[in-house]
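Sugar phosphate isomerase/epimerase, Paenibacillus alginolyticus. Tokens?
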Amino acid sequence: MPKFPIAFQPYTIQKQLVEDYAGSLERVAAIGYQGIEIGMPPEGMKIAEQKALLDRLGLQVINTWGGFNSFDIDTEQIADYLDEVGGRYITVSMLFDGTLEDVLNKSRQMNRIGEAFHRRGKQFLYHNHDWEFKRIDGETILDILLRETDPELVKMEMDTYWIKRGGEDPAVYLSKLQNRCPLLHIKDMEAGEEQFFAEIGEGILDFTKISRVAEAIGTQWLVVEQDQSRRDPFESLAISYRNLHHLGLIIDNDK
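Tokens:
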């Protein structure tokens, strides 16, 4: 079985972070997670203090959030932040109005932003949801984005749950992204019409198959995120990590 370092996306515990930033990160690190996607520290904490906290917890910064549905991105500020905390990737998500013109325009803007980050030694990523699988003249929005953006300047942080929700098989779709998906958000899906979020290994997605494709296309990190949970979110993160361990997908952890 392929093995990966495992990171988490703190959106899963966003409310808990507001209440106890350091304590919440400590609880997740104790589960065994090795990496984190994180943004600027909370008010009152300096970046150097945030970096010291993450270093103490053994959490490697792999990615930061560039924004949702906006290209108002200060590339220099984000690159400076990543230089300080040690990360390389920046991710955005967008909405689309369903026209080809809109997709092409946003593809051009992504190329420009990707070039700006490339000059700073950083990699710009796009994170999908389900709406990118809507079709324009028989072609999905995501396929158009992939075709119209430079594969060196705009890579993907695909999301297994949202691929499935969009009507595609995650493993099959990922196989199209050779050397273009360095980070993979992994989420499971409950059976049934609601298609609610599930802990990894508790739903209907085949992560053994997905992981083999991820390895083949050059994915470097698996990133656990659960947008909503029927359990305490820390318990959900622990269940996902434990199931990934049982599947044999976690690279040896030196913690």
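The domain at 6-246 is CATH 3.20.20.150 (TIM Barrel).
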